[in-house]
Predict the structure.
Amino acid sequence: MILSPIRTQCCAVSSTESVTQDAVTSGDYRIRLRFTLWDMDDLHGRIALVTGASRGIGRAIAVALAAAGADVAVNYRSSLGQAREVEQRITQQGRRCFTVQADVSLRGDVDRLISETETALGPISVLVNNAGIARPQAIEDIVERDWDELIAVNLKSCFLVTQAVLLGMRARQWGRIVNLSSVAAQVGGVVGPHYAASKAGILGLTRYYASHLSREGIRVNAIAPALVETDMVKANPSARADRVPVGRYGSVDEVADAAVMLARNGYITGQTINVNGGWFMN
Ligand code: NAP
């Protein structure tokens, strides 16, 4: 059990420093602190897989999970150079990293992704289903092929990767799954109906798994960002910061912050965390 200070009354120890129960009960600590017990799990020794971690939000989540103590598998589809940069950032933090190419919309690639990751790093206990594409298209321009591709990359991939890691998580009775949805699931958004449908499907998937796995130590949540400054948003001519109530784009680190919180928290499940500058309010 980890005891974490909620407020430092003297600043000799940082407010984020953790003190073990033994140290507290034996009086072996340097300053007087107020402590609280919480169900926040330590990520040290945990293995995390982040899909689509070569760029944007996935990259920031991979680096943030490493900073929180996890060893991280960085999945990418085509951006090997950028994935290697992420690997370097993670290993510089003293964490292990495994970089692995896979198209997460394909069952064969997903099976290889999981088996190679687990051979290299160990059993995956934190999964972030982040990989996604956006094809800004007008309603009348979307053809069946566009629909199928977008649903496969954004939604089917979450099912495939989740299914591939679940067996191990259930056997170990511990797992955290974070799925990247979007404000598009809630208000329609600025990409297209195929994208909005894929992201709404992720919310259904999240709630199903959360409700069926809650007694098995597995927590499943979604993050619904809006207009976070990445390649995806820069490529969308309909994306403008003045659409966001707070008046600016979000940063990838603001989304990563929520992902790390969900990876550590054992009492939040089936929820959608809106990191959207106030665009949609629950
Ligand atoms: P991004 O900058 O375009 O990065 C997308 C990432 O996904 C890249 O690492 C890419 O890999 C990977 N990827 C794409 N297709 C893949 C596939 N089939 N298999 C494996 N990896 C694949 O996007 P982002 O803005 O960071 O978005 C990340 C997630 O957040 C997406 O699910 C997106 O829908 C969601 N989201 C973003 C925003 C936003 O404002 N940015 C808002 C709401 C939701 P390569 O580099 O190898 O191509």
Q: What stands out?
A: Residues 51-52, 54-58, 75-79, 103-105, 130-134, 153, 180, 182, 225-228, 230-233 surround NAP (CB under 6 Å).
